[in-house]
Amino acid sequence: MSIKKITKQAFANFIDNLIKTATVYGVQPKGERFDFAPLASAKDLRLDYDVTLLPPKRFFQPTTETLLTFDGEGRYKSNFDNENFILLGVHPYDMVAINQMDKIFSKDYYDEHYMKRRNNATIIACDVLTPSENVFAASMGMATVSEGFDILLTDIGDGYVAEAGTEKGNALLAKAETTDANEKDLEKRQKLQQDNQKNLNKHKLKCKPSDIPNLLERAYKHPVWEEKAKTCFSCGSCNTVCPTCYCFNVQDSFNWDLKSGKRQRTWDGCLLDGFTKVAGEHEFRSNRADRFRHRFYRKGKYVPEKLNGQISCVGCGRCVGACLPDIANPVKVFNRLVDDLGLL
Amino acid sequence: MDKNIKIDVHYITRVEGHGNIKVSATDGKIQEISWIVPEAPRFFEAMVRGHSYEDIQTIVSRICGICSISHSFTAIKAVENALNIEVSKQTDMLRQLLHYSEQFQSHTLHIGYLAAPDFFGAPSVVPLVPKATDAVKTIIRAHRVANEWSDLLGGRTTHPITIIPGGFTTIPTEKQLRTLQDTIRNTQKDINTIAEVVLSVAKNIPNFERDTEYVSIKQTNPPEYTFYHGDIASTDDGKLVPVKNWHKVTNEYVVDQSTAKWTKWHRDSFMVGALARFNNNYDLLTDNAKKTAQQFGLKKGCCNPYMNTIAQVVECVHICEAAIGLIDKILTKGLVSEKVKVKVRSGKGAGVTEAPRGMLIHEYEFDKNGKCLAADMCIPTNCNHANIQKDMEKLVPEIIGEGQDAVRQKLEMLVRAYDPCISCSTHLLNVEFVR
Amino acid sequence: MGQSCCSSMKRDIYLPRPATVKKSRMMNGTELYIHIEMDEEPLDFLPGQFVEVSIAGFGEAPITISSSPTRKDGFELVVRKTGNVTNAIHKLKGGDKLGIRGPLGNGAYPVEQTKGKDLVFICGGIGLVPQRSFINYALDKRADYGKISILLGTKCRDQRFFHSEIANWKTRSDVTFMETIDQADNCWLDDVGVVTTLIPKIDYDFSKSIFLVCGPPVMYKFVLLSLKKENVPPENIYVNLERKMKCGVGKCGHCQINDKYVCIDGPVFRYSDLASVPEAI
Amino acid sequence: MSNKPRVAVFDFACCEGCQLQIVNLEEEILDLIGAVDVVEWREAMSEQSSNYDVAIIEGSITRPEDEERLWLIRSRAKVLIALGACATIGGINKLKNNFDLRDVKKWVYGKDAEKPHLNTELTRSVAQVVKVDYLIHGCPIDRKEFTYIMRCILTGKKPEIPEWPVCVECKLKDNRCLWETGQTCLGPIIRAGCGARCPSSGFRCFGCRGYVNNPNINAAKDVIERYGLDVEVLKRKMNLFGSGNTQVTANG
Ligand SMILES: Cc1cc2nc3c(=O)[nH]c(=O)nc-3n(C[C@H](O)[C@H](O)[C@H](O)COP(=O)(O)OP(=O)(O)OC[C@H]3O[C@@H](n4cnc5c(N)ncnc54)[C@H](O)[C@@H]3O)c2cc1C
Ligand code: SF4
Ligand code: SF4
Ligand code: SF4
């Protein structure tokens, strides 16, 4: 695959041309924060952002999506999104999260609704320029990314190094006015990436990510779950903002003819009250502390078992900022366990 | 014709809140004519005590769902007056734009859903749906535009959440304002259609006049047909009364037949509302609005209360034009994001605006922590209760020969023409039950 | 990344397939028996698997197949009325259409591994419903299995069902059928009779028999304790678990019990596999 | 006569803003009228009836005579819906319960305060007086939720009302948390379903939909302290709509 250099002006032209051919969702300011939104012009793009409010997962698993429609006779029809789009400015940790979700949604049972959007997407990732106040991707080994993207951009000051990760990316890059990246450009890129592997670390994990499953193996009855969950609101914010949370609810609703309607899927969260409630009001994980613990086990043990051991927290730090009582920070919890239980 | 009449309308319908009409006459001799309000009292002035200046708007907005934006603005103006808070020109213009949306929303609601059935001789708008589908859809469309307009600026259609003492929590984008402007432009056609439909049945508007004092606010600097800024004015004299002296205008008093407090200024009663604004500020209407008035034969000085609904039609025409101009003015300056800063202090202050159904006044007093110590409000329907009673007293003898049903019908129409907002008025009003 | 992969040939895992109700009848005050046939390909299932039943507008509910795949005309469900979907299912009559997804559940009954072994089915109330699939399967392939016992505990008489089938089991010499009924006046739907009292009554080699347990959540604790007392190795016990479920295909997260998913790892679990799953029982 | 369900709308002490939301359905109101027969609705029509299947009740109960009227409605209706905060949790009217009622009356009515017709009693929600089948929360109600619940009722379905707090919807709306800007937002303890309307407009949630089933009030107090704010301020905000009662559920 090609590695090119593209000047900032050429990049702006490239993006402005892309906008003419497809919907481009690029990172832009939203109030004092950042967010992916339809891009009207390259000049609105902010690739120096720290972190987006919601992770880009919503482009593949929308907050609400219609899975099926049914007609007045109860006949079902699948509903798919077929629009091609470009996602511009995905940070490495979010790219890793998307790679994880791809596995989850394509493994065992192939989720065409997710995968269709995924396959319709072109992802232009970019290395982090401004670390956010809670990022700890470096601790998780996810400060940089080597696969999944179609193009990866690295800002080297006088332009970008653009690496194609797929044929699609290659073809797209061919449309831009580029030069071959030279030794010096690549050195600059390497320097930035190496720095990021140190700098994206506002909360330092006291162990290797690969130690986490074993740590959790021994921590099921640890008092930290009860202690922290005492001030948990069960607000699910830690779930909602997380790029690797994917639990969902499914609901039917009727149209006004009271016969036809749709089946929709919406985001859900394992921290929420009622998540495990069945008919007759019995709730299996009714205890806050149990739900609180479940989330950490999913991130550090259960989901990794489905991902060849890769930890399912990418260190974006969103949950750290989203949790009002400040109990959701994975690093704080894991470090506490390291302190109390030691590493084997 | 039967000379015995017994009318006992228990809850007049298609008005906001609960009001009763009682008329009895034997052998053509009138024994009783009363306008009664049995609405449950709600005690807002007592309930706001102890709450922060920030929460006043949230509370008092709930006085009325239909004029929640006016209540919010009046409260916020009073709070700002008490705490000596200045707002920017941008905030001021955006507020006026939002305030217009409520006038428009409330007026279309009243004209289309509440009053129109009377003109068509229908009990409600529901049976009109199959008969006059297009007309109903036009009303719905205009009403939706008004609501989208409130939603954009106020955060919701009812009980706005963006307006806070000192400014806005959030403002629309320039693009959204442009779109709104286009939408309003398209709605102007619908307003004209509505005016034509109303005109086609205008002959059903009773011909009744009673020389009346009309009170509204008036803005002189610069002169403008106002809903938001200004001092209190009466058609009886040209003097302007600043809002801090509002008690001198309302002069609440108790009458024997009712414990409900009524208001009076230069005479026994006065009227507030669209017709009052029209009579006080006619010269400042846009040309198109004046033209609409002419079509209906509505002239400055009109003292037929039934024409209040027509004055609302005229105001709709005016509001759309004024809003389009205001958006241009806002956009030529460009929108900037402003930070609201409030320094809390003790103080007392009053605010006045025009609610869709007339002049609305709030007054609050705060301690040094911004905690509310006392509140006082004067609601437009409050001001109108006495005038409704006086109108009835003149009207009934004039039409008593038309028979019970016609009398009843015309009385209901009269009350509806005032577009009363009864639940608003009751937390201050002394309520009497005649059962 | 498999972005270039062409997925259009795959079936939408959330799309129900059309099916028709052949028959439905109430079995007692709360349970509806319903016989269903797929409109297109027939359902190819194993005992213990379940389907997601779709009633348009009301949603989906996971329901275990109660009939045995050895009986080839369609499949049978028994549904208790508890909420939106099950209420709507109760309104279905012969000829009505509905949607079916499945069969689902990789953890079906161990019909192959248990060949030649003695089987003990311990059922609490409605727990008989899923067990019935394996019971009838084993009875239809009677020669493949050793002794077969069925222990059933029901809270009160009105809640019994499958009367004629049970009567038949009772008369068969190659089946041991035992039943308790706890006839308390105040009859709660979710309670079981004291099925545990029946366990010591069977004269099998407990260390070699296979125990299949299904009933309401409260039952498991007691039954498993009894089996432990009898020194039954956990490898020989199978339990049927139930959790809230939305997708049935291991994605939505609702039925997860620690690291296990009821839908794709169960609903039938080998008890020994649940040693590290504290949330299970 | 058609066999469509007969629906009647009634109001008690309230601002009628929730009824207004029904009018505000705009075009969709034609769908509603198509699916049901509205037989009484004082704010919008003159027709009246004592024969109805579904009663929609707006407002809270503040006087003995209101209570009697409500009993009558309950006895006539098959299905009773509490519409909006006043009906579901008592709403803003409940603020007066925080004061001595004699003082409240005196404050507003002065020397006339003790006249019998000015009687007022502790404000109660509709559910505190009669059995309620469905609660439609909010001040005002959310139009989308209203039509969803109406369609559920018409199809015999139990609506799924969120058990989780406003923060969920607020995050889904991609908002920055208002606590970061110094606002005391009640989102974490208030029931969702409004689409986080207020926080999405930059205004703190003030609790019009009532508490979630299991609000962690103590955590709220801890957070207040962490942000260096005054617990009293929080309490007064929590009183605005909830007036201290933590739970209201429908029987339906
Ligand atoms: C593997 C499995 C097999 C089952 N087999 C049977 C059976 O053979 N017969 C029978 O009567 N019931 C069975 N159940 C229980 C049945 O699925 C629930 O009673 C049913 O989902 C309730 O749905 P509802 O819409 O009527 O209730 P509501 O309370 O309206 O539930 C709404 C939704 O929540 C979920 N849900 C609620 N309760 C349960 C529950 N107990 N289990 C799983 N999801 C639930 C469903 O997705 C349901 O659609 C089984 C459950 C599981 C997990
Ligand atoms: S657990 Fe928190 S830090 Fe980790 S990926 Fe999720 S939101 Fe980001
Ligand atoms: S964000 Fe914090 S308070 Fe909310 S559910 Fe997660 S851990 Fe609990
Ligand atoms: S602004 Fe309010 S509702 Fe939104 S996340 Fe913060 S606390 Fe929750």
Give me some keywords for this one.
heterotetramer; A: 344 residues; alpha+beta; 8-stranded mixed β-sheet; 4-stranded antiparallel β-sheet; 11 helices; 12 strands; globular; B: 435 residues; Cytochrome-c3 Hydrogenase, chain B; 3-stranded antiparallel β-sheet; 14 helices; 45% helix; disordered C terminus; binds flavin-adenine dinucleotide; binds iron/sulfur cluster
Description:
Chain A is of the alpha+beta class and 344 residues long. Chain A folds into 2 domains: 3-68 and 79-199, no CATH class; 209-341, no CATH class. Helix content of chain A is 33%, strand content 20%. An 8-stranded mixed sheet of chain A has the order 3-2-6-7-8-9-1-10, with helices on both faces. In chain A, strand 2 and strand 3 form a beta hairpin. In chain A, 53% of the residues are buried. Chain B has 435 residues and is α+β, with helices and mostly antiparallel strands. Chain B has helices spanning 44-47, 56-60, 68-83, 89-120, 128-131, 133-154, 174-200, 246-250, 274-281, 287-295, 308-333, 380-399, 404-417, 422-425, and strands at residues 5-9, 20-26, 29-36, 163-164, 167-168, 213-220, 223-224, 231-234, 240-241, 253-255, 258-262, 270-271, 347-355, 358-366, 372-378. Chain C is α/β, with parallel strands linked by helices and 281 residues long. Chain C folds into 2 domains: 6-104, Beta Barrel (Elongation Factor Tu (Ef-tu), domain 3); 119-240, Nucleotide-binding domain of ferredoxin-NADP reductase (FNR) module (Rossmann fold, 3-Layer(aba) Sandwich), CATH 3.40.50.80. Chain C is built from 5 helices and 14 strands. Chain C has a 6-stranded antiparallel sheet with strand order 4-3-6-1-2-5. The longest helix of chain C is centred in the middle third of the chain and has 13 residues, at 128-140. Chain C is globular, with a radius of gyration of 19 Å. Chain D is of the alpha/beta class. Helices cover 33% and strands 10% of the residues of chain D. Chain D has 10 helices and 5 strands; from the N terminus they run E-H-H-E-E-H-E-H-H-E-H-H-H-H-H. Mean pLDDT of chain D is 86; it is low at 246-252. Chains B and D meet through helix 1, helix 4 and helix 6 of B and helix 1, helix 2, helix 5, helix 8 and helix 10 of D. The complex binds flavin-adenine dinucleotide (FAD) and iron/sulfur cluster (3 copies). One iron/sulfur cluster binds at residues 232-238, 271, 322-325, 327-328 of chain A.
